Amino acid sequence: MYRKNKEKIDKLQLLSQKMYIFAPNIKYHKAMKISIIGTGYVGLVTGTCFAELGVDVTCVDTDSQKINRLVYGSIPIYEPGLENMVTGNVNEGRLRFASDFNRAFADVDYVFCTIDTTPDADGSTNLDPVYRIAKVFGQRVERACTFVLKSTVPVGTASEVRRIVDEEIARRGVSVQVDIASNPDFLTEGNAIKDFMKPDRIVIGVETERARESMTRLYRTILMHNNRRVIFTDTRTAEMIKYAATSMLATRVSFMNEIANLCELVGADVNVVRHGVGTDSRIGPKYIYPGCGYGGTLFPQDIKDLIKIGDSHDFDMRVLKAVENVNTRQKRILFEKLSRFYDDDLKEKTVALWGLSFKPETDDMSEAPAIVTLDLLTEAGCKVRVYDPVAMNATKLRWDHVYCGIDMYDAVKDADALLILTEWRQFRIPAWDRVKSLMRTPLVIDGRNIYDAAELEAAGFTYRCIGR
After folding, report:
1. Distance, CA of 37 to CA of 47 (rounded, Å)
2. Of these four, 24, 36, 44, 347, which has the most CB atoms within 10 Å of its CB?
3. What phi, psi does 401 have (nearest 5°)?
4. DSSP class of residue 382?
5. Residue 63 burial (CB < 10 Å; 0-12/13-18/19+)?
6. Which among 302, 301, 200 has a CA at the least distance from the CA of 244?
7. pLDDT score of 381 more than 80
8. The domain 19-233: what is its CATH number?
9. Hey, which bits of 340-401 come out as E strands?
10. How many CB atoms lie within 10 A of CB 162?
11. Torsion on CA atoms 86, 196, 426, 454, rounded to nearest 10
12. Is the pLDDT of residue 56 over 70?
């Protein structure tokens, strides 16, 4: 009996040690309070997920109209599962929205800067909004607090934020314990909630042991299940990890698109090439699917930022410049295939597009291949009909002459070609007999290689894709 009890006690002690391995001396007395500055994609997802974990969260934004919509349950972005999670946590009193910055820095344990950074005229990230937030924080912070940079920012931004905050606190003549941390996000649109709750890794940049303990306390619930995937480092390295990871993925995409284009010229099948490459354990299958180019707010801007960082240090990021050039060219590929089919005579041709967002499960059209394709079709004098499950509103605002279909079949009526730009699930197994009966010319140009060529050709379609 003694031996069994001792074994149980030993197991409990070991479990306790594992649970608090990151900060064994931290005591948990009360609900933590967080202010999230910026209610864009990263801010809204981050704040809502922390609220789901039991944290008291206030999301703050200067856009009072957006805040009012959020208060009444109108979610400004499309992300599977987010609306229900926001509603639930608002009803439980853990999640609030405000436009008053005075509430953002009073009586909180953490302030997350998640504002969407935008590019300057030269393509580099405009950091003025981040520095303004840091300045106001330094002017108003009243008690021990950790300022966390979660916006994607160039290397060295956290150090500049530290300088600004310290300067403002010193100007007030007060003594406030403030820590600065860099905690880059790795959320993928369409899968953001899972990415937050069950991350591949958590990267946290700090400069002091106190800041490390503070961030450990915040992430303790997630850290207990990911203790081998947490990377504590300095703030500059954390900032660089974000850019390096994004750039590596973008490089894989552009490289595979180059291979796909070459496959067409030499008569090889890129799908088999991709499989042969992806089964190599040194490479793996992810992000080597050929297509009509990458888009979104993440890849394009991060690539530009890292190129600018290199330029500022007189270092030529030649690989990334090639990645960007390949992607710019790839976004034209569907239009070029269509133009060749009709011998460069596209005037008055009716072209249908399935998919407008840069990827499935999001309404984000930022830098999407659809933008380039729509502009090129318009310049060529085409009549354009489109359908996307969630990105139609953005299309109506930018292209008032484009017909937005009621559904995917309405979009293909009298079409001389159907172009696939986004691989939404509902596009994968359409009723091809219905599609053919509605189209004037049964031509399908598949920008995501989601269809079987033999199947479509047997159904009477002319089929074009990437890399075959």
Report:
1. 9
2. 36
3. -90, -5
4. -
5. middle
6. 302
7. yes
8. 3.40.50.720
9. 350-354, 383-387
10. 18
11. 180
12. yes
Residue with tokens 């609306």: 83
Specify the pTM.
0.86
> What sign results for the dihedral spanned by CA atoms 448, 450, 452, 456?
negative
Vertex 278 angle, CA 276 and 279, to 5°: 70
Beta bridge partners of 181: 148
Domain 244-329: give its CATH superfamily: N-(1-d-carboxylethyl)-l-norvaline Dehydrogenase; domain 2 (1.10.1040.10)
User: Both tokens of residue 103?
Assistant: 């509430």
Token reading at 438: 């509605």
Q: What is d(CA 336, CA 332) in angstroms, rounded to the nearest whole number? A: 6
Domain 331-464 has CATH 3.60.21.10: no
Residues carrying CATH 1.10.1040.10, the chain: 244-329
Tell me the average pLDDT of the chain. Answer: 90
Angle, CA 69 vertex, CA 66 and CA 75 arms, to 5° = 90
The residue among 67, 90, 68, 86 whose CA lies nearest residue 78 is 86
Of 297, 316, 296, nearest to 306 by C-alpha is 316
Instruction: Please tell me what DSSP assigns to residue 284.
Output: -
Cα 260 to Cα 197: distance, rounded to the nearest angstrom: 35
| Confidence tier at 398 by pLDDT (50, 70, 90) | confident
User: pLDDT by residue (tens digit) across 158-214?
Assistant: 999 999 999 999 999 999 999 999 999 999 999 999 999 989 899 999 999 999 999
pLDDT at 458 over 50: yes
